[in-house]
Amino acid sequence: MNVSELTLLVLRIGFLLLLWMFIFGIVYALRSDLFGQRVRKMSTDAAPAAAFPASAVPVAVPVAAPAAPDAFTAPVARASPAGANSGVDGGMATAQNTTRLVITSGPKAGTEFPLGADTITIGRSSDSSLVIRDDYTSTHHARLMLWNDEWMLQDLDSTNGTFLAGARVTVPTKIPLNATVKIGATSFELRR
Amino acid sequence: MSKASALKTSRDEPVRRLHLPQKLRNLELFLLLIACFINASAVMLVQLGTLGELDPTLVLLGAGLSALVIGLHIVLRFVARDADPFILPIATVLNGIGIAMIYRIDIADNQGGWESAAVRQTVWSALAIFSAIVVLLVIRNHRVLFRYTYIAGLVGVLLLFLPLVPGLGKEISGARVWISFGNFGTFQPGEIAKIALAVFFAGYLVRNRDSLSMVGKKILGARFPRFRDLGPILVVWALSMSVIIFQRDLGTALLYFGLFLVMLYLATGRLSWVVLGMGLFLGGALIASQTLNYVNGRFTNWLDALNPEVYNADGGSFQLVQGLFGLAKGGLLGTGWGQGRPEITPVPQSDYIIASLGEELGLAGIFAILALYLLFVARGFRIGFAGQDDFGKLLSVGLAFVVALQCFIVIGGVTRVIPLTGLTTPFLAAGGSSLVANWIIAALLLRLSDTVRNQPRLVV
Q1: Distance between CA A97 and CA A99 in Å, rounded?
Q2: Distance between B284 CA and the closest CA of chain A, angstroms
Q3: Confidence of residue A46 (pLDDT cuts 50, 70, 90)
Q4: What does the radius of gyration of chain A's CA atoms come to, in whole angstroms?
Q5: DSSP structure class, residue A176
Q6: Helix, strand, coil proportions of chain A in percent (round to 5)?
Q7: pLDDT, tens digit, for every residue of A153-165?
Q8: Hey, is B340 helix, strand or coil?
Q9: Distance from C-alpha of B384 to C-alpha of B393, rounded to nearest angstrom
Q10: Do residue A125 and residue B386 have CB atoms under 8 angstroms apart?
Q11: CB-CB under 8 Å, A3 with B18
């Protein structure tokens, strides 16, 4: 035994420290899982709401969720330059007649997203299929899924709600083609 | 590949990936290097603590293991670029700490050379990591497993009862859960069976959950299933009871039944199944404790462990209490690698490895190990939560839960929270079949996490 007691004591504590540093390293790397994704700052007039995302008042925010169905005309008109009025041009979105999801308002307006047979999850979390990072989107906000070949929209108990043609979605709802779905400051439509 | 090309063609490249895939792999490599360093320093500290000098032969063996783990990492870079970066480092650290402790007990027992338990464990680890690589290469999409639901169920049940075949099965310390291959060694097929059964339960429940969750009478606010829908749970219950009776293995039975119950709860979202199942199992265990000698003994050892009569009895609580003494000796920071005397407890390198580690690493070390398990299981749950298809969701949560439950059963038994039942501590304990099974679970979780992240995605 040519190793002194003191060396062993130091090495022993060093090993435990190393083990715990490894664990805290992992926890640090997964901090976004534990505390949610960082929010992106919105434009200046939404700044007060941005400071307290959970208590964001719909009325105080220009493009936030309208409180009642009859208030939907303004955001929809602003949201869909293509002039789509919800549900008018024919039928519900099905697996056969729908090929893409088009963002109609928000920072990425005009972007398209191909639809397959898979469920599309929407939220701030980075494992969503459609990641929306603003103050009004919940971590797991909503999802689009195929039920009997028809696209359904389901709100996942989000804080600020999901709106289909201006009406808040509470139960899984069929989506008409070209109808505006609004989540936070982003709107999109399902198109052929 | 087809998805990627489909994205490219859809107009001036609007779809972007959130992560550059290699970012995750680089993080994994960084953590993996730390993990290999932890493993090497554990072995070196064992040598300093017991021999007082460094012996390079086993360090070289450890380096071989590190090379294999890095090999697995390189395979991931090619076949599962978006896989979870934490699972592999965590499994590596647990496996390495286990080998260091087994090596330490070998030295105490004067076992050296190529026949010792530590060398065997290292060879088994290499085999296990190799089988994880094979799983990753063969299963490119977890939905393939969905096709083989019923075959997986059959394989699971066959593996479970393989040790009962005369001539093939082998009885060790009362339980008949091993099969022997002559001189080559023994294998515990039940460990592999838990993966097959998890696949079967996931596939079966995805197909049949509607009838299990929709209908039934409401009693006291909870919706209870119809009598005819009780079939599956009764079959699994009968299966686990027959494991208790014929194989004399309480832990395995609890593991499979718990796994089925949790997956049933996940699939249906109804608490009444859990209440019903726990009632059934507790009833069965109570009857077993009255009628079967070995179960009764386990209960006595648990409830009355410190009674001198029980302590000194043949098959009494000697082992359990020695383990507790060891944990107490360890205290907060432990005696240090090689400084305690964990070899006094019977089987300190398999069932009681947690007590051995608790003695030498202390409460701080035990909590670190538990935190590693917690992170591993949490990653599994997380993968299930983020998953898009129900089969993948159920499978990943089921696989993660089976690791969690196994930890609870064995660590709970050693620390006298529940009656002691023989199971291996995942990744840590000496035992080849357990290592192979757990590394395959890690590989499946890696594959599932890759599929979850690898979907068309748009960031606004």
Answers
A1: 7
A2: 40
A3: very low
A4: 23
A5: B
A6: 30, 25, 45
A7: 999 888 888 999 8
A8: coil
A9: 4
A10: yes
A11: no
According to DSSP, residue A39 is labeled P
Q: What is the pTM of this model?
A: 0.77
Q: Between chains, do A22 and B93 touch, taking CB under 8 Å as contact?
A: yes
Q: Is the reported ipTM for this assembly greater than 0.90?
A: no
Residue B179, exposed/middle/buried by CB under 10 A (0-12, 13-18, 19+)?
buried
Verify whether the Cβ–Cβ distance B460 to A126 is below 8 Å.
Answer: no
Tokens found for residue B412: 């709970």
Whole-angstrom distance, CA of residue B240 vs CA of residue B281: 9
d(CA B317, CA B352): 13
Query: Is residue B70 exposed (0-12), middle (13-18) or buried (19+ Cβ within 10 Å)?
Result: middle
Q: Which two tokens stand for residue B137?
A: 């290469």
What are the backbone angles phi and psi of residue B307, rounded to the nearest 5°? Answer: -70, 125
Per residue in A117-126, pLDDT (tens digit) is 778 888 887 7
Question: For B350-375, what is the mean pLDDT?
Answer: 93
Which residues from chain A sit within 8 angstroms of residue B49, using beta carbons?
8
Phi, psi of B439 (to 5 degrees): -70, -30
Task: Please say whether the beta carbons of B255 and B421 come within 8 A.
Answer: no
Would you tell me how many other CB atoms lie within 10 Å of the CB of residue B184?
Answer: 7
Taking CA atoms, B318 is separated from A124, B292, B321, in Å, by 55, 21, 5
* Dihedral pair phi/psi, residue A97, rounded to 5°: -95, 0
Question: Of how many residues is chain A composed?
Answer: 192
Cα A189 to chain center, whole Å?
15
Residue of A17, A35, A113 to mutate for B, most B C-beta atoms under 10 A: A113
